[in-house]
Amino acid sequence: MIETGSLIRSLSGRHAARNFHTFVINEIGRGIVTGQFPIGSVLASDAVMMEQYGVSRTVLREALKTLESKGLVEARPKVGTRVSPRSRWNFFDPQLLAWHFDAPPDPAFNESLFRVRELMEIPMVKLAAQHRTAEQVRLMKYWAHKMETADDSIEQFGLACLEVHSVIAEAAQDLLLRSVTGVVELTLALALTRNSELTGSQYRRQSATLFTRLVSAIELRMPDDAAGILAECCALDRKQLA
Fold first, then answer.
1. pLDDT > 80? residue 47
2. What is the rounded distance in angstroms from the CA atom of residue 123 to the CA atom of residue 121?
3. Beta-carbon neighbour count of residue 196 at 10 Å?
4. Per DSSP, which regions of the chain are E strands?
5. Residue 15 confidence (pLDDT)
């Protein structure tokens, strides 16, 4: 399973250590999401892929099983492993979402990302304002400050922002709403690197200001105010992809 923050860390060229299993999953999974392996196409034979990726049959089969569990492929007798239609993909899978970072721009998909993010994060931030503890407020303030002092480091800013989102999710005490974290990380990574509306420094400065206000509203147990500020955060990120 992909570690939260892995996509943000990769923005600076730093990747987590990987084994052969995760390497094959990433190579084939990213290839499917980016269109290298088109929908409906049949992947190469086991023998070809074993040679291509330099792995054993056992490693390859386990990787394909993982991709099948994500809905990306389907193994059929006498046919091979076929790339599944997008309607079968598990889009809440953080790893699958992360692969979309390298995919060609898709305005409709990006709009769907933000639609889902707002639908899930707004009720989550309201719950956080009602149930947050003093320790959770302290953590949110700490990471919001880290956003303000990240300077030109995209990685430090992104990870600090993601930590605020994570603490909010923890404070909300809703396990299902927490599944939006992968969506948040992808939209944040895109906003940090596209810079189509604001320059990077302008975007980061405005975002840090909003998060300071957001944490304050949560601390004061003002759920409606917190929801409104969260909507502003989403709108700012969306502008970067326009």
1. yes
2. 6
3. 10
4. 73-76, 80-83
5. 59
Q: For residues 104 and 228, is the Cβ–Cβ distance under 8 A?
A: no
Are residues 139 and 219 in contact, defined by beta-carbon separation less than 8 angstroms? Answer: no
Task: Summarize pLDDT for 197-241 with one digit per residue, the tens.
Answer: 788 999 999 999 999 999 999 999 999 999 999 999 999 999 998
DSSP 158-174: HHHHHHHHHHHHHHHT-
Q: Is-contact 217 229, C-beta < 8 A?
A: yes
Environment class of 201 (CB within 10 Å of its CB; exposed 0-12, middle 13-18, buried 19+): exposed
Q: Where are the domains of the chain?
A: 6-88, 106-239
Q: How far is CA 49 from the centre of its chain?
A: 28
Q: Distance between CA 18 and CA 63 in Å, rounded?
A: 13
Neighbour count for residue 224 (Cβ, 10 Å): 10
The hierarchical CATH code for the domain 106-239 is: 1.20.120.530
Torsion from C-alpha of 198, 199, 202, 205, nearest 10 degrees: 110
Q: How many angstroms from the chain centroid is the CA of residue 66?
A: 19
Question: Quick one: pLDDT at residue 196?
Answer: 76
pTM (two decimals): 0.91
Radius of gyration of the chain (CA): 20
In this structure, CATH architecture of domain 6-88: Orthogonal Bundle (1.10)
* HSE-up of residue 25 (Cα within 13 Å, Cβ side): 20
- Residue-wise pLDDT for 54-101, tens only, equals 999 999 999 999 999 999 999 988 889 999 999 999 999 999 999 999
Residue 109, pLDDT above cutoff 60:
yes
Distance separating alpha carbons of residues 49 and 41, to the nearest angstrom: 15
